[in-house]
Amino acid sequence: MSNYTARRTPVHRGPAAWSAILPAQDAPVELSSDTNADFAIIGAGFAGLSAARRLLQLAPDAEIAVLEAGRLAEGAAGRNSGFMIDLPHEVSAQDYAGQGVDSDREMIALNRQAIAFARAAVEDYDISRAYFDPAGKVNGAAGAKADGLNRSYARHLQSLGEASEILDAKSMFELTGSRHYVSGLFTPGTTMLQPAGYVRALASGLRRDGVAIYENAPVLKFEDQGGSWTVRTAKHRVNARKVILANNGHLESFGFARQRLMHIFLYASMTVDLGAEAVKKLGGQPRWGVTPSDPMGTTMRRIDSAQGGNRIITRTCASFLPGMQVSEGALQRAAKVHREKFDQRFPGLKDVPMEFTWAGHLCLSRNGVAVMRELERGLYSACVENGLGTTRGTLTGIGAAELACAVTSDITGHFTAEAEPTRLPPPPISTIGANLYLRWKEWRAGNE
Ligand SMILES: Cc1cc2nc3c(=O)[nH]c(=O)nc-3n(C[C@H](O)[C@H](O)[C@H](O)COP(=O)(O)OP(=O)(O)OC[C@H]3O[C@@H](n4cnc5c(N)ncnc54)[C@H](O)[C@@H]3O)c2cc1C
Questions:
Q1: Worst-scoring range by mean pLDDT, 239-243, 277-281, 425-429?
Q2: N- or C-end of the chain: fewer Cβ atoms within 10 A?
Q3: Distance of alpha carbon 130 from alpha carbon 421, whole angstroms
C-alpha cells in the first residue's frame, strides 16, 4: 500500500506583508489529538480553502479537515500581488496573449467562474469589499516597445470580443501619480484582492460552517490504508476517506511530478503607511494595480487604509529554486532593485522607507498545465497554479473537490484533459538555464 513522506515543508523568507498589515490573527487552532474526517485537505491557500468550500456545497454533512503547515495567509496567499485576473495572462508570452482564440475563450470562462465562486463566498461570509474589489487593472507601458505590446494585446482581446481601453500618459499620471508610464491598457474584469484579508476571512467563514482548519500542522506523511488514508503531522493523525493535496509546489515534496515542476520565487516590497504629506505629494487615485506590459517587468500596486494602510507595493525579480528556499542575500538583492524601480516611478517619494520585503513560492510547469486529477484511489491533487493561483488555485480546488465527490463540470473536464507537466532538463542544467533565462528577460524588460 502506498505511503508518501514529505522531503521538505515550506520555509519562508521575509514576512507575509499582506497579513502583517492586518490586525493580528487569533491564536492558531492546532491539531491536539487524533481525529477522523471524510475529507482531509493539505494546504489552506486559495486551492485548499476553495476545495473545502466546494466540498461543503456538494456534501454538506461531511466532516472536512484542512491542515496548514503555517499560519493562515502566511504562505503564498499572503505574499502575492492580489490580481485575480479573468483574461489570458500568459507570462511566458511577449504580451500575455494565450494559446489561441478558442482556448483563451475557454480559460476566460473558467477564470470568471473562479471569480464568481470567490464573490459568492465574499457575500456568504460578509467579507470586506476592500479585500475583494472588482476594480479592473492596467497594463502599464514605460516605453514605445511596451506600448506596442499593449496595442497587440488590445487587438488580441478585440478578436476575443473582450473590452479594453488604451490610457494615455496623462490618464496614467492621474491614476497613479507617476509620470513613468507612456500608456496603459485598462481591462475591467480583474478583481483586486487584499489576498491575506480574503484568505483569512474565507477561512473564518468555513470554520463558521463547520470546517476544521488546523494551523501549524505540516503534514509529514500520508498512507493508504486500503480504502481510507492516514494523514500524519509530527504528533497526531487524521484518518480520512479521501485526501486532497492543495499544497501547490510542495506536491513534489511528496514525490509527485518529480523533475517536472518549476519552483519560481518572486520578490516584493511594501512601503510604510504613507503619511498625509506623502499621500498628497503622490496624488493619483487611492487604489490601483498596474501589471507591466512586458510580463518580466515590474508590477506596482497602491492600496488604501481599508486594505491595511496607504501603501505602494513593488514586485519584480524572480529566481528558479528547485530546493524551494530563498537566501537572505537574494532577498537583499531584490530589495535593492525594488527601491530603484520605486524611485524611478515616484522620484518625489525617495525618502519613503520600505517596511517589508519578502519572497514567495509559485509553481509552474513548462507546458503551462496544472496537476488537477485523481492521483490514486481517494487521493486528489489541486496543485501547480502556473503563477496565477488566485484564479487557477480557486479552480483546481473546486475541481479536486468535485472529483472527490464524483461530480463532473467544465472545470473537471478542462483540467483532467490536460497533459502531464513536461519533464525538465536535469539539474544543474535546468537551474542554470532557467536563471540565466530569467535574468535575460528581466534585463530585456528594462524600465518596464
Ligand atoms: C510576489 C508574488 C506575487 C504574486 N502575484 C500574484 C497575482 O497578482 N495574482 C495571482 O493570481 N497570483 C500571484 N502570485 C501567485 C500566487 O500567490 C500563487 O499562485 C497562489 O498562492 C497559489 O495558491 P495555492 O493555494 O495553490 O498555493 P499556496 O497559496 O502556496 O497554498 C499552499 C499551502 O499549502 C501549505 N503546505 C505546503 N506543504 C504543506 C504540508 N506538507 N502540510 C501542510 N500544508 C502545507 C503551504 O503552507 C501553503 O499555505 C504571486 C506570487 C508571489 C510570490
A1: 425-429
A2: N
A3: 36
Q: Among 46, 264, 298, which residue has the most ligand 1 atoms within 8 Å of its CB, making it the best to mutate?
A: 46
Q: Which atom of ligand 1 is nearest to the CA of 390?
A: 11
Q: Is the CB of 69 under 6 A from ligand 1?
A: yes
Chain centre distance of CA 439 = 22
Cell numbers that stand for 123 in this block: 457575500
For 323, other C-beta atoms within 10 Å of its C-beta total 10
The CA–CA distances, whole Å, from 173 to 6, 53, 288 equal: 49, 41, 12
**Residue ID of nearest Cα to ligand 1 atom 11:** 388
Q: What is the DSSP letter of 90?
A: B
3-class DSSP string for 34-78: CEEEEEEEECCCHHHHHHHHHHHHHCCCCCEEEECCCCCCCCHHH
- Cα–Cα distances (Å) from 357 to 193, 336, 374, in that order, read 19, 10, 37
11, 229, 248, 364: residue to mutate for ligand 1 pocket, most atoms within 8 A of CB: 248
Residue 293 pLDDT greater than 90, yes or no: no
Enumerate residues 6+ apart whose C-beta is below 8 A from 148. Answer: none
- Identify the pLDDT of residue 387: 84
Q: By three-state DSSP, how is residue 222 classified?
A: strand
Percent of the chain with pLDDT over 70: 97
The CA distance from 43 to 9, in Å, is: 11
Joined together, the cell numbers standing for residue 153 give 494585446
Residue 87 Cβ < 6 Å to ligand 1 = no
What is 273-308 written as a DSSP string? Answer: PPPHHHHHHH-S-SSEEEEESSTTS-EEEEE-GGGT
Alpha helices in 166-256 (DSSP H): 169-176, 195-208
Dihedral (Cα; 98, 100, 105, 108), 10-degree rounding: -10
134 pLDDT tier (thresholds 50, 70, 90): very high
